[in-house]
Amino acid sequence: MLPKYSRVLLKLSGESLMGDRNFGIAPQMLEQYAKEIKAITDIGVQVAIVIGGGNIYRGMNEAETGIERAQGDYMGMLATVINGMALQAALEKAGVNTRLQSAIKMEQVAEPYIRRKAIRHLEKGRVVIFGAGTGNPYFTTDTAGSLRAIEIDADVILKGTRVDGIYTADPEKDATATRFDSLSFSDVISRNLKVMDMTAFTLCQENQLPIIVFDMNRPGNLRDVVAGKKVGTLVS
Ligand code: UDP
C-alpha cells in the first residue's frame, strides 16, 4: 500500500497515556500506541511525535498549586520528556528505531533539538520524538506540534484524540452533535470549534499545514489515516 502522506507529525496528549487510570502512564496504552506507530513506519511513513504532559503535570493551575505559571509550565515541559522517554522505550521494544530530542537541554537522556538532525533521523527511518514542548512557558504541546511539523516540513499534523473527529458540539456532552468529515480553517474559526488552541491553530493556518483529528484509540485508525481513508476530520 502506498501511503498518502510520507512525513507526518503525530500529536498525542499526555492524558491519552493514562488509559483507564486517573494519573500517570498505563503500560498497555504505551504498548498499543507503539504497535499502531510501528504499523505506519513499516509502510515507509516518516513519523515525528509530540506528546503532551497533562497526565503528569499541567502548568496553568496556579490558583490550585500555588506555583507560579512560568515555573509550572517548565514542570509541564519536563513531564512531556518523561512521557517521551516512556514512548521511546515502548517503540524500541517493538523494534522501531527512535531518537528523542528535547527543547530543554538534558543530554544524558535526550539529544538537544536540532532541526536538521531531526530531519536526517526521519530520512533514515527513525521515529523522532520531540520532548519539552517548544521549550517556552505560556505555550502548549499543540503549539509545539504545529511548530515542529512546519519546521520539518511534515505533510500533515495528526491529532490523536479519544473522539473520532471534530463535532458540532462536544459529543461526550451533547447527543445531537454531528461529526464533520472536513472543514476549512476559516470554518473552524467562524463556527468557533475547538480543534487546538489559537496559537497552534493559527500556525497551521498561516503555513497551510492540514490537520486531521482522529480517534487514536481505535486499532488500525492511524494506518487508515495515513493511507488517505476517510477517518476523522480533515482541516485544510
Ligand atoms: N508546556 C509549556 N510550553 C510548551 C509545551 C508545554 O509550557 O511549549 C507546559 C504547559 O504547562 C502544559 C504542560 O507543559 O500545560 C503539558 O502540556 P499540555 O498541557 O499541552 O499536554 P497535553 O494536554 O497534550 O497532555
From TrEMBL:
Coiled-coil regions, chain positions: none
Major place of residence: cytoplasm
SUPFAM superfamilies, per database record: Carbamate kinase-like
Residues of the Aspartate/glutamate/uridylate kinase domain: 7-215
Domain of life where this protein originates: Bacteria
Lineage, top ranks: Bacteria, Pseudomonadati, Bacteroidota, Chitinophagia, Chitinophagales
Annotated binding of ATP, by residue: K11, L12, S13, G14, G54, R58, T161, Y167, D170
Record's function text: Catalyzes the reversible phosphorylation of UMP to UDP.
Catalytic activity: UMP + ATP = UDP + ADP
Gene for this chain: pyrH
Pfam families: AA_kinase
Quaternary data: Homohexamer.
Subcellular location as annotated: Cytoplasm
Family per record: Belongs to the UMP kinase family.
UniProt protein name: Uridylate kinase
Keyword field: ATP-binding, Cytoplasm, Kinase, Nucleotide-binding, Pyrimidine biosynthesis, Transferase
UniProt-listed Enzyme Commission number(s): 2.7.4.22
Matching CDD domains: AAK_UMPK-PyrH-Ec
Binding residues annotated for UMP, in chain numbering: G53, D73, T134, G135, N136, P137, Y138, F139, T140, T141
UniProt organism field: Nemorincola caseinilytica
UniProt-recorded Gene Ontology molecular function terms: kinase activity
Regulation of this protein's activity per its record: Inhibited by UTP.
UniProt pathway: Pyrimidine metabolism; CTP biosynthesis via de novo pathway; UDP from UMP (UMPK route): step 1/1
